[in-house]
Amino acid sequence: MENRKELRHWLDNLQLSHPLVIAGPCSAETEDQVMKIAHQLKDTDVSYYRAGIWKPRTRPGMFEGVGSLGLKWLQRVKAETGLKTATEVANRNHVELALEHDIDMLWIGARSTVSPFIVQDIADALRGTDKIVLVKNPVNPDLPLWLGAIERLASANIEKLGVIHRGFSTYEKTKYRNNPEWQIAIELQTKFPDLPLINDPSHITGKRDMIFDVSQTALDLNFDGLMIETHSDPDNAWSDAAQQVTPETLVQIMKDLRIRKEFDAEAEFLTSLNNLRAQIDVIDNQLIDLLGKRMKVADGIGKLKKEKNVAVLQSKRWNEILGKMVLEGEEKGLSEEFTLKLFKAIHQESINHQEKIING
Q1: How far apart are alpha carbons 11 and 224 in whole angstroms?
Q2: Which of 62, 155, 220, 338 is the most buried (most CB within 10 A)?
Q3: Which domain covers residue 284, as residue numbers?
Q4: With 0-12 CB in 10 A as exposed, 13-18 as middle and 19+ as buried, what is 287?
Q5: CB–CB of 347/294 below 8 Å?
Q6: Pairing state between β 225-229 and 132-136
């Protein structure tokens, strides 16, 4: 993988003046719906028209796609609009049908990436293909599992490879549908800079009004493109209605996004600087989120102390924590002075929370 610089060739050969844009409905619903959206997108920044033909759903009884009939609609899209086509495949039969209908780009979904057996079956069916194959991150935050899927495809002599970052499932509810866990995508990008990296803000956010901000973060982190679900009537979509945008909104998003290009040494410096700053922004947001969670735990401790009439400050426990954190901070390259200041501030905020509950 480290020496597979040909991985970027398919992207470079597109000669785009903007990040790669893959857009279209979550699901192909009817032929009229597919064609209407395609014609609305044909003169935009969109290069690949995506539509789910087979939809892996969490529970039975939900709309699971129109099946192979939709592939004929995608053929018509390419013939009438010139847009290249893309769809998800989850087994050998899907692959064979997609290749038969000359679909240009195939992606393996998050639920499939978790299974090496499924990925291997798809890799065998695609062996030697010249089609572009993208792999979404697995549902769980497991970078080796994600890379393992890419390695299986590379071993099948599939050269036009890339990955899609669509966030990771979590039992705990957050503002995202799937937590971005940006550090995982950043680590993948650091290890394999020649592997094209596409962001899927639709599945990360689950809400159309958050798509712009996540897209901007992705571009600041040097992602190569975006996959955004687009529907002419998103509120009445047959699947994932809340996360789809209209074609008009997609065009506006692409106009408003700040896209940084590398033209000279100074621009390259600024791009690298902005990338590092974007990484710091991601980590800062994680720190705030973790501190918020810590204070909720402190609230729980405050309630227990109130019930048992226990003093807020427990000096022995506090000194044990502080000593431990100083040692762990030194291992991470943090000075004792910094660690003491940081945890004293956190401890004081925790005391404030508990006192409000006890005196409340």
Answers
A1: 9
A2: 220
A3: 270-358
A4: exposed
A5: no
A6: unpaired
